[in-house]
Amino acid sequence: MEITDKRVVVTGAASGIGKALVHAFNKTGAGSLVAVDINAEEVGKVAEEIDGRAITANVAREADIQRVIEAANDYAGGIDIFCHTFLQPNMLFLKCSNKEVVTWLIQPQLQAC
């Protein structure tokens, strides 16, 4: 998967897997990164670390998701990859807008097995 110059949005980006995704996309040359989380202070720090944009939002609310999409489009002129991470009790969900991206993300873990 070619990440170079892609416009990427990651939710749950203030910590854990979301934060790791932001740094992975940054390391591989994403053109722009939008870090989204309900925790304004921490997501601001993450965005600063990767010279990206922070958006504070509760992604459980449809209106907030719409606002994230609009802000990301305004910031980067579009979205190529949207990775949505969120936790529920005992479960992690990862949804990306592109199957190739999911493969790119999990390939190192598969090779380590």
Give the SSE layout.
Blueprint: E1 7-11, H1 16-27, E2 32-37, H2 40-49, E3 53-56, H3 62-76, E4 81-88, E5 91-96, H4 99-112
Describe the protein's architecture and organization.
The protein is of the alpha/beta class and 113 residues long. The chain has one domain (7-112): 3-Layer(aba) Sandwich (Rossmann fold), CATH 3.40.50.720. It has helices spanning 16-27, 40-49, 62-76, 99-112, and strands spanning 7-11, 32-37, 53-56, 81-88, 91-96. The chain has a 5-stranded mixed β-sheet, sandwiched between helices. α2 (40-49) links the parallel β2 and β3 (53-56). The longest helix has 15 residues, at 62-76. The chain is globular.
What is the compact description of this entry?
This protein is of the alpha/beta class. It has one domain: NAD(P)-binding Rossmann-like Domain (Rossmann fold).
The CATH class designation is: Alpha Beta
In the predicted model, the low-confidence regions spanning at least 5 consecutive residues are 88-93, 108-113
Helix content: 40-55%
Overall average residue pLDDT: 82
CATH topology: Rossmann fold
Largest pleated sheet: 5 strands, mixed
| Number of separate strands | 5
- From N to C, what is the helix and strand string? EHEHEHEEH
Query: CATH superfamily, please?
Result: NAD(P)-binding Rossmann-like Domain
What topology, given as strand order, has the largest sheet? 3-2-1-4-5
Overall shape: it is globular
CATH architecture: 3-Layer(aba) Sandwich
Rounded radius of gyration (Å): 13 Å
What is the straight-line distance between the termini?
21 Å
Strand content: 25-35%
Which class best fits the helix and strand makeup? alpha/beta
How many helices does DSSP assign? 4
